[in-house]
Amino acid sequence: MRRTPVIAGNWKMYKTKDDALAFIYAVNLEVPEFEKVETVICAPSIFLRDLVKREGENLKIGAQNMHYLDEGAYTGEVSAPMLRSYGVDYVVIGHSERRAYYNETDESVNLKAIQAIKYDLTPIVCCGESLEIREAGTTNDFVKQQVIKAYQNIPAEDVLKTIIAYEPIWAIGTGRTATPEQANETIQAIREVIKSLYGEKISEQLRILYGGSVNPKNVDSLIAMPDIDGALVGGASLDPTSYLTLVKAALKK
Ligand code: 13P
After folding, report:
1. Residue 164, beta-bridge partner list
2. Section 194-222 average pLDDT
3. pLDDT at site 227
4. What are φ and ψ of residue 209, in 5° steps?
5. Would you identify the CATH topology of the domain 6-250?
6. Ligand 1 centre and the CA of 111: distance in Å?
7. CA-nearest residue, atom 2 of ligand 1
8. Atom number of ligand 1 nearest to Cα 92
9. How far apart (Å, rounded) are the C-alpha atoms in residues 93 and 223?
10. Domain boundaries, the chain
11. Largest Cα–Cα distance of the chain, in whole Å?
12. Would the pLDDT of 175 be above 90?
């Protein structure tokens, strides 16, 4: 069974409005049919409305974060119903930068994933270990626990509405990519834990991406690995040509 690959750009806190629009105009007509590769751009909240208005039929727009409640006195926050009302389709949940700098916890990641599903947003649920954990040799156990906590109270029928992104923290923005074998091994471990929770069929269908210094040079070897279903990409998603190279690599999947 083929899992449709996903190339999701995470722009983080980069670009201004003009840069963002120029990017969309440059890639809209170049990305392949959505059934071949799911192409997603996760942009800062302030750009979402403009990007959704201009997204082509094969490109989808995602947010980088959201609150887990419908509404409330939470200055500066954005809710799932707000995102949905603007036609946003995806949302990154639990990125390591949000875990590190904004007190995102396994519990809030879980609540946000549930909330995203409720509002028909596809959560891209992030997990990944620090260098310390990698060097201690406990990566797979750590990441498995993150996944178990992220999927608490998510019923089997909702699991395939989600995507997981495995992003080792030591590989993010460092130019130091996990080797394809390392990435595949941990993603296999994630698939195992999904299998133990939800059974083989679901674990075989769930898309699991790799993220961390993916670029046009290393993307082919990562994408070629059997368990890696695409990439969540920071730096190399900012430039249209670079982003399209990644998308073309995923076409070979
Ligand atoms: P880089 O591709 O810049 O390493 O960032 C990865 C990432 O954090 C994507 O969410």
Report:
1. 125, 208
2. 98
3. 97
4. -100, 160
5. TIM Barrel (3.20.20)
6. 23
7. 234
8. 10
9. 22
10. 6-250
11. 47
12. no
197: tokens are: 């929770």
Residue in the structure block whose two tokens are 């959505």: 34
- Which of the residues 38, 67, 95, 97 is marked catalytic? 95
Band of pLDDT at residue 161, cut at 50, 70 and 90: very high
Active site residue 167: yes
Centre of ligand 1 to C-alpha 72, Å, is 31
**95 CA to centre of ligand 1 in angstroms:** 10
Rounded Cα distance, 84 and 215, in Å: 30
DSSP calls for 44-68: -HHHHHHHHHH--TTEEEEES---S
**Cα(216)–Cα(236) distance, rounded to whole angstroms?**
8
Ligand 1 pocket, residues with Cβ under 6 angstroms:
10, 95, 167, 172-173, 211-214, 232-236
Rounded to the nearest angstrom, the distance between the alpha carbon of 52 and the centre of ligand 1 is: 22
Q: What is the mean pLDDT of the chain?
A: 97
Size of the chain, expressed as the number of residues it contains: 253
Rounded to 5°, the CA angle 32-35-38 comes to 70
